[in-house]
Specification:
The chain has about 290 residues and is an alpha/beta fold. About 45% of the residues lie in helices and about 20% in strands. The protein starts with 6 loop residues before the first strand and ends with a helix.
Length: about 290
């Protein structure tokens, strides 16, 4: 039974198998403490589309007042998002978008902009515009996700202008996972004598590539490894240790997501898109960031 005056907010998280998702859930739970009038129900899709669809169906049956969802992938979750909207439950989508314009709001980072920043930085590291040269291993996130495509497109908007930059792999996906990236990198090392740079679509995969290079005794040859996420205990720490060259902050939309749900419940109108800021993290600022995070 629902306590009088309390609203139910459902949050369908796609997985808790990745550190960024664990932080995301911590962020939304911490924000929930500021909203005693909201009952927050969090589900875990266990990195399976079908499980996440079932979770959303369940939240619809429970008649949540707002549905927050961070989808595993776009295509497979669009239907259930529309089902919620048909049932008059407003939906706020977080981080990975779905393929419908009917949602109330999208909150996430600008992955094209982050990809472009990574591409621009890569060109600079490899010698500068017009002079950049090197062999690049790019490890994709999940192929069915918008962030992976955006991070790829943004990066190539800069690197494809450089005739000296060579892409060694043909769209290989590590599905955001460290162990899969380790395997991709191990094969890439076997097939290529010279690898100058790795671009991982997230930090766990960039770190997986670093570990593969280290185990192959070639970590010193790989001059630059770039990731994305910038969690203090992960990317920022790896950058400060020199294991990664750079990462880009990709803040979780957990706290903002719940704040926006609370606004909606008060009858306020939401902006269609909220874009979370990013920043470049290198050895120059990594220790300062770690200090601030205590
Ligand atoms: C976690 C994650 C992050 C990445 C984001 C992209 O599941 O893979 O590492 O930045 O999802 O959607």
């Amino acid at each position: 039974a629902r306590a009088a005056g309390k609203s139910k907010v459902g949050f369908s998280q796609c997985t808790t198998l990745e550190p960024w998702r664990v932080q995301f859930n911590k962020d939304i739970q911490a924000e929930a403490k500021n909203h005693p009038d909201i009952d927050l129900i969090i589900t875990d899709g266990q990195d399976k589309t079908q499980k996440q669809v079932a979770d959303c169906d369940n939240l619809i049956v429970q008649q949540v007042n707002v549905l927050l969802i961070s989808p595993k992938e776009s295509a497979g979750l669009t239907g259930v998002v529309e089902k919620a909207i048909d049932a008059k439950i407003p939906v706020i989508v977080l981080d990975r978008n779905v393929d419908t314009k009917r949602i109330t709001q999208f909150i996430g980072g600008d992955n094209v902009a982050i990809g472009k920043a990574a591409g621009e930085h890569a060109v600079k590291l490899l010698g500068g515009p017009g002079k950049a040269a090197g062999n690049v291993v790019e490890i994709w996130g999940g192929m069915g996700t918008q962030p992976a495509h955006d991070r790829h497109d943004g990066f190539h908007a800069f690197t494809d202008k450089e005739p000296g930059i060579k892409n060694l792999l043909n769209n290989q996906s590590g599905d955001w996972k460290q162990d899969k990236a380790y395997d991709i990198m191990t094969t890439a090392l076997r097939n290529n004598e010279k690898i100058d740079m790795v671009y991982g679509h997230n930090d766990p995969m960039a770190y997986g590539a670093y570990l593969a290079a280290k185990d192959a005794g070639r970590d010193k040859d790989i001059r630059f490894i770039i990731g994305i996420d910038g969690l203090p205990d992960e990317g920022v720490t790896w950058v400060s240790k020199g294991q990664l060259t750079a990462t880009f902050l990709y803040a979780t939309p957990g706290a903002e997501g719940l704040r926006q749900a609370a606004k909606l419940l008060k009858g306020e109108k939401l902006e269609p898109v909220i874009t979370l800021p990013t920043m470049l993290i290198t050895k120059e600022n990594a220790s300062e960031i770690l200090k601030k995070n205590g």
